[in-house]
Automatic annotation (TrEMBL):
Pfam families: UPRTase. It comes from the Eukaryota. It comes from Ardeotis kori. Residues 13-177 form the Phosphoribosyltransferase domain. Keywords: Cytoplasm, Glycosyltransferase, GTP-binding, Nucleotide-binding, Nucleus, Transferase. GO terms for molecular function: glycosyltransferase activity; GTP binding. GO terms for cellular component: cytoplasm; nucleus. The keyword GTP-binding applies. The gene is Uprt. This is Uracil phosphoribosyltransferase homolog. Signal peptide: none annotated.
């Protein structure tokens, strides 16, 4: 609990530069763990000095999908680890009075139904936005079992809502706590 209070205080009171630095570090950690969940094959790599090394490489067919706007903050962390990964986007707005999420835009690789999806959304509060995003992915032929949600902070209610709707989905987060920091995108992009 004390750690959570410190994180929320940090989100509110830090300079934008410190905030972005810390957020990028957390993003990188959750992206790397998400990549660890993807299927890979063994391969032999020849080093520049001619030595053989037994390593691994990702199987083809992975992509990222960011839920705009805050999810876009996670795209660079994914690209830093996988330079050529395809990234789709979904724009979802929640009605401020009813909290109902509505999809306004969705653009994916045409073969997304064959891919494993890293769904990026940093702050998971109610779960409504992510549920709508997963519904759109399912409409495009993606099975929930191949979706990995990458989140920085999640409430127990939000995670439970998603799992109740889509029990096959994988959720990766750095923190589960009843209070999630808000306005992540505004602070990250400097529009607060």
């Amino acid at each position: 609990p004390q750690f959570k209070i410190e994180i929320i205080t940090f989100f509110r009171k830090s300079s934008r530069g410190d905030f972005v630095f810390s957020a990028d570090r957390l993003i990188r950690l959750v992206v790397e763990e998400g990549l660890n969940q993807l299927p890979y094959t063994e391969c032999t790599v020849t080093t520049p000095t001619g030595h053989k090394y037994e390593g691994v490489k990702f199987e083809k067919g992975n992509c990222g999908v960011s839920i705009m706007r805050s999810g876009e903050a996670m795209e660079q962390g994914l690209r830093d680890c996988c330079r050529s990964i395809r990234i789709g986007k979904i724009l979802i707005q929640s009605d401020e009075e009813t909290q109902r999420a509505k999809v306004y835009y969705a653009k994916f690789p045409p073969d997304i139904y064959r891919r494993k999806v890293l769904l990026m959304y940093p702050i998971l509060s109610t779960g409504n936005t992510v549920i709508e995003a997963v519904k759109v992915l399912v409409e495009h032929g993606v099975q929930p079992s191949v979706i990995i949600l990458l989140s920085l902070f999640s409430t127990p209610h939000g995670a439970k809502s998603i799992i109740q709707e889509f029990p096959e989905i994988t959720i990766l987060t750095t923190e589960v706590h009843p209070v999630a920091p808000t306005h992540f995108g505004q602070k990250y992009f400097g529009t607060d």
